[in-house]
Design brief:
Length: 206
Amino acid sequence: MIDALSTGQAAEVAKPKLAFIVFVLLDWELSPSDEVTLGHTRYLCSAMRDFDWDGHTWRGMGALASIEPITETATNEITGTRLVLPSASLSTRAQILQQKIQGTECKVWVAPVDDDEQLIDSPILEYRGFLDTPELSDNVDATGLVVSTSVAVTVEGIMVDFKRTGRYRRYTDRDQRQMYPSDGYCRFVGALKEKALGWGIPGGPR
């Protein structure tokens, strides 16, 4: 569920042109000496400069390379998004290969800003999930020497964890029998979906 826009944000979004900043929190432990690292948790943003918000300094990364569209489906389909970070150093590449990043938390906020690049009310929490295994793509120079690495990370929604651990249930006959083959408790659930019920209507369907 995406947070609702405030009155000021809604007015800004309605304008012909919208300026905004994307804030990305990565619970991703790398060396403090790395160029995209600010302490234990990564605080990154799409601004062209560092940005102070929520008690933290968010490292300005310019364009965060890319963030795939974040959608919320009517059928509660489990979807993720994908972040691509700018060129990282070779030392960062080595650390990523050595550390366990999968399963750590990621949050993405979108913040409309005014003409002076000031936040309009509180940023909107657009997405929250967990990092999957990162994909590395080496960048080489004209001589074929690897000079940096592009890091792409898929972020899985929280509901993926429910499905993986068995807590995500559809309560259909098929789903129930996968857990308990002889249990037919949910066998009428499908029929109830289209059944018309009369509630407090004299002479209504029975």
